[in-house]
Write a structure and sequence with these properties.
Distance between the termini: 79 Å
CATH topology of the largest domain: Rossmann fold
Strand content: 5-15%
Largest sheet: 5 strands, parallel
Structural class: alpha/beta
Oligomer: single chain
Shape: elongated
Helix content: 55-70%
CATH class of the largest domain: Alpha Beta
Number of helices: 16
């Protein structure tokens, strides 16, 4: 018998304290305890060994394993370190749910953004997502503008569509058509999960119906990984950027301060939102900063960049 196997057997032979009645235990804590026991067995470690390594009492660890102990996040971190696993694996993150997931995570661990992007694009192609160049023949003729509100997606998008002879849609309006109410009402009445479902339906329909289209997307679409993956797979994406002051000024000029209306520190809120989303916006095929131009000049520069990307001859506007 290998040393690891003997450790597992020692784990099994331990006398465990009697658990509380099943109905008294929280299902999440029960599942957490089962994962701790499974990971401990997988590592071939006794409860005492884990308790010593984690610097917690053996009784505390036993309570955790049976779902009767509501451990603090610091204790969970110590236990995960003792078991040589991530806190995500201990808590049951979906990407730790099978050996294949774990092996994939190991291959990707420590890779840079460029490597991860290549892997994502390749996986998209292998699984039929169309993320690889040429995977979706219609991808190049669907232009999706992403970015915060006030970047110029609607104004420049309409002009770009007219210039290219493409259809133009504002995805927010399509979402409202599906829901039969305004974006604000969707959030207040049904919540964010319902909004994301409507957003996906609207995006899927746009992809299916329009072979040539310019889509102005909601600023928060990148916050949903599934919807953003769909967009990246089937559209040529352009991140319209702007300086925070320009974002704020343009939204105010439209008579609307959403989503910062109730904040006394609106500019700081906007900067935090931009900082939180920039890493996702940067996954676009192209980026264009509208703050450096007047409206007409911004359009001319954007159309040139887009036409070059699509391999079209730039005609005089």
């Amino acid at each position: 018998m290998d040393a690891d196997d003997s450790g597992v057997m020692a784990t099994v032979r331990q006398v465990d304290p009697a658990p509380l009645e099943e109905e008294a235990r929280n299902p999440f804590l029960v599942a957490l305890g089962e994962r701790v026991r499974t990971l401990r067995s997988r590592r071939g470690m006794t409860r005492k060994a884990v308790a010593v390594a984690a610097d917690v009492s053996e009784r505390h660890l036993a309570n955790l394993e049976y779902g009767t102990g509501n451990a603090s996040i610091l204790v969970l971190l110590q236990v995960s370190q003792a078991l040589h696993c991530s806190l995500a694996e201990l808590l049951g993150d979906v990407s730790t749910s099978s050996p294949e997931w774990l092996l994939i995570r190991e291959l990707l661990e420590g890779r840079g953004e460029a490597d991860l992007r290549r892997v994502r694009v390749t996986i998209g192609g292998l699984l039929g997502g169309g993320a690889m160049p040429g995977g979706d023949p219609g991808r190049s003729a669907r232009i999706a503008l992403i970015g915060l509100r006030g970047a110029g997606k609607s104004t420049l998008g309409q002009r770009l569509a007219d210039d290219l002879g493409f259809a133009f849609i504002e995805l927010s309006r399509e979402i409202e058509k599906f829901a039969g109410c305004s974006i604000n009402e969707i959030h207040s009445l049904y919540g964010t999960p319902a909004y994301r479902r409507y957003e996906r339906r609207a995006l899927e329909e746009a992809i299916q119906i329009y072979p040539e289209v310019v889509i102005a997307t909601p600023g928060g679409l990148v916050s949903d990984a599934a919807n953003f993956n769909l967009l990246l797979s089937h559209c040529t994406t352009v991140w319209l950027q702007a300086d925070p002051a320009d974002h704020m000024g343009r939204v105010a000029a439209q008579g609307d301060m959403r989503p910062m209306a109730a904040s006394r520190e609106a500019m700081e809120d906007l900067k935090r939102i931009l900082a939180g989303r920039s890493a996702f916006y940067s996954k676009a095929d192209m980026s264009f900063n509208t703050s450096a131009y007047s409206l007409d000049d911004a359009f001319q520069a954007l159309r040139t960049q887009v036409r070059e990307k699509l391999g079209l001859v730039t005609k005089h506007a």
